[in-house]
């Protein structure tokens, strides 16, 4: 498609939700900003999040949903509304169109028809502002190196682009993004969740802490109790605003597959799954991928990073890991604990601490590949599951 299309979905049927997610997130440029189960919350959600499209599941009670759709359409003239239903009754379709629905999609939704409908809307809005990219880094186990990769990848992207890049810490209780960059944020995600007004981009901009490389940082709360004040809705509002004025937003996390975590993954352009050649990491990675697949997430957006590659693991090789997960290796980062620990303890990015180290060069190359994806040479060959893969799957 080549353009971004941000969706809110109104749907109370989880089975249909997984199917819909799978189809939406396979369309290039589509981002799923929010999913709403209760029709009564729809107008508030649309007012809170900046999106171009709304997709509404009319079933099982179109007579309840359509009046609310009409109210939303009346209050948001620029919003394109799609409706889906098992019914193809002419009167229902006519009523939906009168309520402001632009595209009526019979169930089961035809993927090509959905793509064409999205493309029509995207073409109509071709002059819309370009949005930034959200990159999430998901560690598969504690100490796997996800935060080190997040901070250094964000620094490299800021250096390559010379533009706006923000690193966000999604470990609300124990996150260390600010520590690894030796900055002392005065504001955090929790502060921005205190009221709807804090979702304005200019307010969020003032809450960011600037690193000397030009990178902006949004750290975790300073107090443990504040973590409980961060809601999924507020978190998504913040991310929706951040991608409006950043070239890249790089998130350390999510650390949990809860409502907030699922929403961040749905909004992400790329999810980097970080593993080491360790059994617990690979088992957790397998569970994460299976959960994402079952919930309709586009696994083409998931990339595998093997950290500390080459380290003597006793049993597992990189090939064992990729065959078990059924996911090609996007990049590997060499084992250099001495350099990594030195940079972490001093709160310096590798760019400053050891710019010529193999560790820094590997992360720089990842940043370049993400920034210029056309130069990627990902291995997309289908891999046969090895014996160790079957052992993991059975455990």
List its traits:
395 residues; alpha/beta; Rossmann fold; disordered C terminus
Would you write up a description of this structure?
By secondary structure, this protein is of the alpha/beta class. The protein has two domains: 5-124, Rossmann fold; 133-394, 3-Layer(aba) Sandwich (Rossmann fold), CATH 3.40.50.300. Helix content is 43%, strand content 18%. The protein has 17 helices and 13 strands. It has helices at residues 14-24, 42-48, 62-75, 90-98, 111-124, 146-161, 177-180, 189-192, 201-207, 232-245, 259-267, 279-294, 318-325, 337-346, 350-353, 358-371, 387-394; strands at 5-10, 30-36, 53-57, 80-85, 103-106, 133-139, 165-169, 209-210, 216-218, 248-252, 270-275, 302-309, 329-334. The strands form two sheets. It has an eight-stranded mixed beta sheet with strand order 8-9-7-10-6-11-12-13, with helices on both faces. The protein has a five-stranded parallel beta sheet with strand order 2-1-3-4-5, with helices on both faces. Strand 1, helix 1 (14-24) and strand 2 (30-36) form a beta-alpha-beta unit. The longest helix has 16 residues, at 146-161. The radius of gyration is 22 Å and the shape is globular.
Note the topology:
Elements: E1 5-10, H1 14-24, E2 30-36, H2 42-48, E3 53-57, H3 62-75, E4 80-85, H4 90-98, E5 103-106, H5 111-124, E6 133-139, H6 146-161, E7 165-169, H7 177-180, H8 189-192, H9 201-207, E8 209-210, E9 216-218, H10 232-245, E10 248-252, H11 259-267, E11 270-275, H12 279-294, E12 302-309, H13 318-325, E13 329-334, H14 337-346, H15 350-353, H16 358-371, H17 387-394
Parallel strand pairs: 1-2, 1-3, 3-4, 4-5, 6-10, 6-11, 7-9, 7-10, 11-12, 12-13
Antiparallel strand pairs: 8-9
Helix pairs in contact: 6-16, 10-11, 13-17
């Amino acid at each position: 498609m080549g353009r971004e299309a941000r969706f809110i979905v109104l749907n109370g049927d989880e089975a249909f939700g997984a199917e819909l997610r799978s189809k939406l997130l396979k369309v290039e440029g589509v981002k799923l900003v929010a999913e709403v189960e209760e029709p009564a919350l729809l107008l508030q959600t649309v007012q809170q999040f900046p999106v171009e499209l709304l997709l509404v599941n009319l079933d099982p009670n179109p007579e309840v949903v359509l009046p609310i759709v009409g109210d939303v359409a009346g209050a948001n003239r620029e919003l394109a509304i799609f409706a889906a239903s098992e019914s193809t009754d002419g009167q229902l379709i006519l009523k939906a169109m009168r309520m402001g629905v632009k595209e009526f999609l019979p169930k089961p939704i035809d993927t090509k028809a959905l793509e064409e409908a999205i493309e029509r809307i995207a073409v109509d809005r071709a002059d819309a502002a370009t949005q930034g990219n959200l990159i999430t880094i998901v560690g598969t186990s504690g100490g796997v190196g996800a935060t080190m990769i997040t901070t250094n990848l964000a620094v490299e992207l800021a250096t390559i682009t010379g533009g706006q890049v923000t690193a966000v810490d999604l470990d609300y209780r124990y996150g260390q993004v600010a520590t690894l960059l030796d900055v002392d944020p005065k504001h955090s995600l929790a502060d921005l969740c205190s009221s709807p007004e804090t979702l304005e981009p200019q307010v969020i901009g003032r809450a960011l802490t600037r690193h000397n490389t030009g990178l902006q940082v949004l750290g975790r709360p300073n107090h443990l109790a504040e973590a409980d004040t961060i809601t999924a809705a507020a978190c998504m509002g913040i991310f929706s605003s951040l991608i409006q004025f950043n070239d890249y937003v790089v998130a350390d996390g999510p650390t949990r597959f809860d409502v907030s975590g699922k929403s961040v993954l749905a909004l992400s352009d790329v999810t980097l799954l970080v593993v080491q050649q360790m059994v617990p990491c690979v088992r957790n990675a397998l569970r994460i991928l299976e959960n994402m697949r079952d919930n309709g997430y586009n696994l083409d957006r998931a990339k595998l990073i093997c950290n500390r590659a080459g380290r003597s693991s006793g049993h597992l090789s990189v090939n064992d890991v990729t065959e078990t997960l059924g996911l090609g290796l996007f990049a590997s980062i060499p084992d250099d604990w001495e350099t990594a620990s030195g940079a972490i303890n001093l709160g310096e990015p590798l760019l400053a601490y050891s710019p010529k180290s193999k560790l820094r060069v590997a992360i720089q190359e990842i940043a370049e590949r993400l920034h210029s994806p056309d130069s990627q040479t990902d291995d997309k060959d289908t891999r046969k599951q090895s014996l160790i893969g079957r052992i993991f799957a059975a455990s």
